[in-house]
Amino acid sequence: MAYTLFGSKTSPFVRRIRLLMENTPYEFKELNIFETEDAITLNKMNPVNQIPVLLDGDRRIWDSRQIFNYLNIMHKLHNMTWEDENTLTALDGAMNSGVALLLMKRSGLNIDEPYMYMSRQKERVDSVIQYMTPYMRENGLKEWNFITMTLYSFLDWANFREIISLKMYPDALTFLEAHSNRTIVQNTMIPKV
Q: CA of 158: how far to CAs of 19, 101, 153, 191, in Å?
């Protein structure tokens, strides 16, 4: 199999797939979806116009959750329970809310204004982090699976983009520190430029 993964080095959705594919050969093609040429390339591959996109021969898989499902079927990576699926849905919701907040910030909006939409996004992020706190204190410190990878990708990204302050979430800091020295985590670090 010759996989090609299209995405950015900053996206938490892309990073969780890069973490997942640690032991799976693939070519990574970086896109800056805010540049015209890369945006056109992405739109030709994915009508949803989002990253990542996985190519497997002529097959195109859109959306990181579907890419996970595809790779999981192809390589039997993780045995998922319904509770695991619910947890991933919660994390996907937090990541989507985080991206919405980032796009609002980049559009010049003050996300600290008490508008309903902004408040709802922040509440969702906080709610999911609170929901994940027991996991971060227990299994999350020992396990390295798609849930852990997703949580790590989200927290690291949200902190980097200043969507959250990790000072408010000491368990998140401990969780991130527990996995920060993994080779794959180091190899997929968000560029600081």
A: 17, 10, 9, 14
Domain identity same for 92 and 162: yes
* 76: alpha, beta or left? (left if phi > 0; alpha if psi -120 to 50): left
Q: What type of residue is 77? A: L
| Strand 26-30 versus strand 3-7 pairing type | parallel
The arrangement of strands across the sheet holding 3-7 comes to 26-30, 3-7, 53-56, 59-62
Residues of the chain with pLDDT under 50: none
pLDDT digits (tens, 9 = 90+) for 183-192: 999 999 999 8
Q: Which position has the token pair 């997929």?
A: 188
Range of the domain at 40: 3-75
* CATH at residue 37: 3.40.30.10
Residues 71, 94, single domain; the answer is no
Supply the pLDDT for residue 1.
Answer: 58
List, for residues 116-141, the tens digit of each pLDDT value.
999 999 999 999 999 999 999 999 99
147 CB neighbour count, 10 Å cutoff: 23
DSSP code of residue 52: -
Q: What is the pTM of this model?
A: 0.94
